Amino acid sequence: SLSDRLSGVFDRLRGRGALNEADVRAAMREVRIALLEADVSLPVVREFVDKATERAVGQQVLKSVTPGQQVVKIVNDALVEMLGAEASDLDLDVSPPAVVMMVGLQGSGKTTTTAKIAKRLAGKDRKKVMMASLDVARPAAQEQLAVLGRQADVATLPIVAGQQPVDIARRALQAAKLQGFDVLMLDTAGRLHVDQALMEEMKAVADVATPQEILLVVDALTGQDAVNVAKNFSDQVPLTGVVLTRLDGDARGGAALSMRAVTGKPIKFAGVGEALDKIEAFHPERIAGRILGMGDVVGLVERAAETIQQDEAEALAKKMAKGQFDLNDLRNQLQQMQRMGGLGALASMMPGMKKLAGVAERAQDDKTLGRLDAIITSMTPRERAKPELMNAKRKIRVANGSGTTVQDVNRLLKMHQEMANAMKKIRKMGGLGKLAAMFG
Ligand code: GDP
Ligand code: MG
Hints:
GTP binds at residues 104-111, 187-191, 245-248. By secondary structure, the chain is α/β, with parallel strands linked by helices. The chain has helices at residues 2-10, 21-37, 42-56, 67-83, 110-123, 141-152, 165-178, 196-209, 226-236, 254-263, 284-292, 295-321, 327-340, 342-348, 354-365, 369-378, 381-385, 392-402, 406-428, 431-439, and strands at residues 98-103, 129-133, 155-156, 183-187, 213-219, 241-245, 267-271, 279-281.
C-alpha cells in the first residue's frame, strides 16, 4: 500500500523535524502512483502533485507521527481542498420555474439522476417538480423517465411522438410555467462518445431553456478519459456542477478530481445506487479517503495535531497564570481560530465566555485578521510583550507601518484587553488546558 511504500521512503527521516524538498519529492512519487491507480487523469495528477509538494516542503513533522504519515495528511488535505472544501447545493433561487438541465455521455446515469434529484427536491425541499425527457435518440428513453416519474411520484411532461428536443424543451417550459411548477428538470440524450451533433443539440436546448443549473453527469468509473469528457462538455455549455454516479461500486473516484480540476465546478451530488433515494450530497473527505486509501493514517495525524494543540493550550494557560497573555499570544490565538474555529467555538460552549467568542467571531467575520496581523508585526517585540507601552506616538508609527489607521490599532488593543480579561476568567475555572481536554 501507499503507507508501506512511504514508510520505506521516510524511515531514515524519522525525528528530523522539517520535511525537505528531496524527501517530499520521493514521497510524492508514491503519491503519484496512488493517484494514477485511483484513475485520476495524468495531467491532473501532475498539477496536483506539484501543488502538494510546494505545500509540504518545509512543514514541521508532528511529534508521534512519521514524516510519511505527515505527507499523507498534507496530500489528503490538498485533495479535500481541491475537491471543494464543502458540499454545494443546487441554486434554484430564480423566479419559477428554475430549469435544471442534465448532460453527459450515454449510460452515465442522467435519466436515473434526473429522477433522483427530482424526488429529492419534491420530498425534502417540498418543491413542485416536473421532469421532461429530451432523449429522442434512444427508443423508449422518454418512457423510461415517465416510469421513474411514477415511481418517484413526480410529474413528467406528456410524451408527443416525433417532436425534436428543442421543441420538447419549449413545450416543457411553457407547461411548467402555466401549471406553476417550481422546478423543471430536463433530461437530455447522450452519446457513447462526445460528438458534434450532440453538442449542437445541447447548446440549442440550453439557448431555449436558459437553465439555472447545467449538471454534467459522470460515471465514477470513467478513467483517463474523464479529462476529455469534462473539457468537451464545459467548452460547449456553461456547466454549473457535476454529479458523480456509481460511487456505490468499487471505483476509487479519481474522476472526481479530474472533473473538478478541468471544469472548476463543484461536485454537487454523488449517486450511490440504482434506487431513486440513492443520491447524496458530495463529501470531499470521503472521496479523498477513497482516492488515497489512507483514511486511518489521516485520522492518526489529525489526532496528533489535536494533542499538540492541547500542549499549546496548556503552555498558554501557564503564561496566563503569570499574567503574560501578550499580543504574540493574541496573534497565535487569532490564527488558530481562523484555522479551526478553535477557541471561539470552545468559548461559546462555556457560560460566561460569550464575550470571548464574540471577539473571536468579529475578528473572523470582518476578515480583519490580515490587518490585525500587520499591526502586530509592525510593533517592536517590547511593545508586543507590553501593550501598555502603546502611547499616541507609537500608535501613529504602527498605523503607518502596517498601512492601517490609529483607530485600527486602538481596536486591536481593545480586543487584546477584552481577551486578556476573558482569559483570566477561564483561568479561574480551571485553566484552558482543562477546558480543551473537556471539549477536545
Ligand atoms: P443515461 O443513459 O445517462 O440516462 O443513464 P441511465 O440513467 O439510464 O443509467 C444507466 C444505468 O446505470 C442504469 O441501469 C441505472 O440504474 C444505472 N445507474 C445510474 N446511477 C447509478 C448509481 O449511482 N449507482 C449504480 N449502481 N447504478 C446506477
Ligand atoms: Mg437517459
